[in-house]
Amino acid sequence: MTTSAPQPAVSVIVAVYKAEAYLKRCVDSLLAQTFGDFEILLIDDGSPDRSGEICDEYARQDRRVRVIHKENGGVSSARQCGLDNARGEYVIHADPDDWTEPEMLEEMYRKAKEEDADMVICDYYIDDKGQSTYTKQAPSSFDNRQILRELFQELHGACWNKLVRRICFKKADVSFPELSYCEDLFVNTCLVASGVRVSYLNQAFYHYDQAMNPVSLVYRPVKEVLDQELRLYDLLKERLSAAQFSLIELHLKSRLLPKALNVGGDYLCNFSECYAIIASHMNELPLSSKQKALYWVAFHISPYWAYRIRGSLNAILHGKVKQYR
Q1: R_g of the chain computed on alpha carbons
Q2: Would you list the DSSP string of 3-16?
Q3: Where are the alpha helices (DSSP H) in the chain?
Q4: Do residues 66 and 41 make contact, with C-beta atoms less than 8 angstroms apart?
């Protein structure tokens, strides 16, 4: 008679692709946790470099590490593979180019148990070229409707600063979609919309590394990001109730404005359609006066000329975004 492996308190899922340059930094920081009852799932998503070998080395050295090798399918399929194979009561994700403070799992799990929370959100650090910036993530309210709104404003949609009770994914029938961008935002939006009990821990443990590394990061053109944003819009409209979608629709459309204007061409139609809908709600959106002025010019005078002058407003019109691929 075989016995199943004991259920760990937490499963940490790491989707791995072209990460040999600093995968060890990530995994070492996880293995150094002060909390003992956890497992690490390293999902090798068909990585063509030595990432898979590095994963296997860790699995041989530490029984808390499990490795799954799969054909390349993208970040969503890798995250979902990890979720499907996780055994923990709670799950959290980590990106292979980031790292964590040693108290992360202990403090987040303690908070989850103390408050019987389904999701614990914590603060995080943004690290860029040796500079570390503390980023608050406190919801203004624990009402799920308000948290839903703020996931598209002040709160980051990432999975790496959210510890989630694993059974909630099954109860809410939530899985990672076929997206290569904002797949984490989609999942967390659906979880919050399903009514999970959310708690907040006012400490930062996760280091979100935004420094460019040509070996392990690909900085995607904004056109690809815009295509994924449009897909995200459609998926959420289909998934959420009309009342829930109305809470975030304006913010979804406002996310499209700078990207559509930056890409130009046929995408300017997306800009015009979105602007026409949100024009009377500009004061409700977190837009600067420069953004509002540029959008007004684009819509009322000429999107072509606004597209041409966008280069002087790089601070608000980002052309590339850090991605897993």
Answers
A1: 20
A2: -PPPPPSEEEEEEE
A3: 23-31, 51-61, 75-85, 104-114, 144-150, 167-171, 183-193, 222-239, 242-263, 268-278, 289-300, 303-309
A4: yes
How many whole angstroms separate alpha carbon 271 and alpha carbon 256? 7
Q: How many domains does the chain have?
A: 2
Q: Spell out the residues 6+ positions from residue 47 whose beta carbon is closer than 8 angstroms to its own.
A: 16, 17, 18, 19, 20, 72
What does the pLDDT look like over 114-154, one tens digit per residue? 999 999 999 999 998 889 999 999 999 999 999 999 999 89
Residues ≥6 apart with Cβ < 8 Å to 311: none
Residue 293 C-beta-side C-alpha neighbours within 13 Å: 7
Supply the pTM of this predicted model.
Answer: 0.89
CA–CA dist 256, 4 (Å, integer):
48
Mean pLDDT of the chain: 89
In a domain, 2, yes or no: no
35, two tokens: 């909390």
Q: What are phi and psi of 274, to 5 degrees?
A: -65, -45
Whether residues 26 and 134 share a domain: the answer is yes
Q: How far apart are CA 257 and CA 292, in angstroms?
A: 10
Position 5 in a domain: no
Rounded Cα gap, residues 267 and 51, in angstroms: 37
Side-chain half-sphere exposure of 204, counting CA atoms within 13 A: 15
Strand partners, 134: 125
Residue 303, both tokens: 């999107």
Residue 309's nearest CA partner among 287, 325, 293, 288 is 293
Residues of 195-212 as b/e, b for ≥16 C-beta within 10 angstroms? ebebbbbeebbbbbbeee
C-alpha span between 67 and 96 (Å, rounded) = 14
Domain that holds residue 122: 10-209
Residues 155 and 265 in one domain: no
Q: Which long-range contacts (CB under 8 A, 24 or more apart) does 250-254 make?
A: 250/277, 250/278, 250/281, 250/284, 250/285, 251/149, 251/152, 251/153, 251/285, 252/152, 253/277, 253/278, 254/278, 254/285, 254/287
Return the structure tokens found at 314.
Answer: 């790089």
